Amino acid sequence: MTPLLFIQQTAPHGSIVGQEGLDACLMGSAFADCALLFLGDGIFQISGIQNTQLLGVKDYSVSYGVLPDYGVTKIYCRDQDLKNRGLVLADLSISLEALSDSAIARLVEDAAQVLTF
Amino acid sequence: MIFSIAIFAGPQNSEAPLSALLFAKAVIAAGHDLTRVFFYHDGVSTANLLNMPPQDEPNVTKEWSKFGQEHQLEMLVCVASALRRGIFDQTEATRHSKPAANLAEGFEIAGLGQLIDVALNADRLVVFK
């Protein structure tokens, strides 16, 4: 059982929710085994072609790169979400596994607590 | 059963803090344990003493203050989220040279690690967002 599952569901920068969700995930990794799932537009948070200089905001997505150093290796997205957005795993800035809907259902079922952002 | 509540949205534009309060009352009325509530993301705005909703609308900040004190709840407000949104207790106000503190009574500033602690040590964590 995974003690903590974090789910990122929103595109970055329009709201600070993704940044605070990542902060929570990094903090969680200090206490317990964590998994991270990107759903829907949440997948855009790890798009490899972001340029936040044009927006004048901080590019917090670089912090996703430290997840392996924090021991977070269970990182997933939804296969169909990639397809619907014309993305492939190579477009993303970190390595992760694309899951089927049934695998995602098992992931959520297997988590003791789920925090969605 | 040990319940914990996390609130991720503020009273200005979301029903979440009010729904959470009603849920908290139901949890206690049913005889379960509820000792900690964590306010994160926009939820920290619930702790802003300066909130002034119109008189014919509920003052969620005041109601959480009253309920939390009555039941001796730990009402933990994430420090990073709070400072970003202009919510300070006296210690933080002094540290950052702000002219005033505005953390409502019964709430306390806490680290994000407390959210994880709250999540890991509850039978059920219920998030309102």
Question: What would you say this structure looks like, in words?
Answer:
The complex is a heterodimer of chains A (117) and B (129). Chain A is an alpha/beta fold and 117 residues long. Chain A has a single domain (2-116), classed as Hypothetical Protein Ychn, Chain: A, CATH 3.40.1260. Chain A contains three helices and five strands; from the N terminus they run E-H-E-E-H-E-H-E. Chain A has helices at residues 17-29, 79-84, 101-109, and strands at 2-8, 34-38, 74-78, 97-99, 111-116. Chain A has a five-stranded parallel beta sheet with strand order 4-3-2-1-5. In chain A, strand 3 (74-78), helix 2 and strand 4 (97-99) form a beta-alpha-beta unit. The longest helix of chain A is centred in the first third of the chain and has 13 residues, at 17-29. In chain A, 35% of the residues are buried. In chain B, strand 1, helix 1 and strand 2 form a beta-alpha-beta unit. The longest helix of chain B is centred in the first third of the chain and has 14 residues, at 16-29. Chain B has helices at residues 16-29, 60-70, 79-84, 90-95, 113-120; strands spanning 2-7, 33-39, 74-78, 107-110, 124-128. Helix content of chain B is 35%, strand content 21%. Chain B is an alpha/beta fold and 129 residues long. Chain B has a single domain (2-49, 60-128), classed as 3-Layer(aba) Sandwich (Hypothetical Protein Ychn, Chain: A). Chain B has a five-stranded parallel beta sheet with strand order 4-3-2-1-5, with helices on both faces. The interface between A and B is medium-sized, with 17 and 18 residues.
